[in-house]
Amino acid sequence: MALRISLVGVFTGAVLGGVGRAAVAVIHLSEPAQGIAAVVLSAATVGILIGALAGATGAPLLGAVVGAALTAVVYLASLPIVLFFHFLGTLTAPPLVEVIAVGALAGGIGGAADRMAARRRSSGSGRDVT
Question: Three-class SS of residue 101?
Fold first, then answer.
């Protein structure tokens, strides 16, 4: 079975992952601070990467599983840093379930978008501009 990377899934997953992770970061910031842009931008970058990788699968269920798994790994790897900032009073640590839901949704919707685009291509229902 050949590996086929889905560009529609990559783009959709990346957008949803970036927006979702940025939203989680903004929600859990305690108060506006000077470093807010760096925190939100780094969270969005992680979300873009996870969403793109999960959406590249081109399958909704597999994309959701990959998105959830990658998110869990990144969450656990970054937990000491997040807890340090929590100790400083800069932010509150987001719940694991909340962060995993964002990764799973980004991957699942990215996979579903590719599946819908593939159906549209195969049925020939694409709009021709003449």
Answer: helix
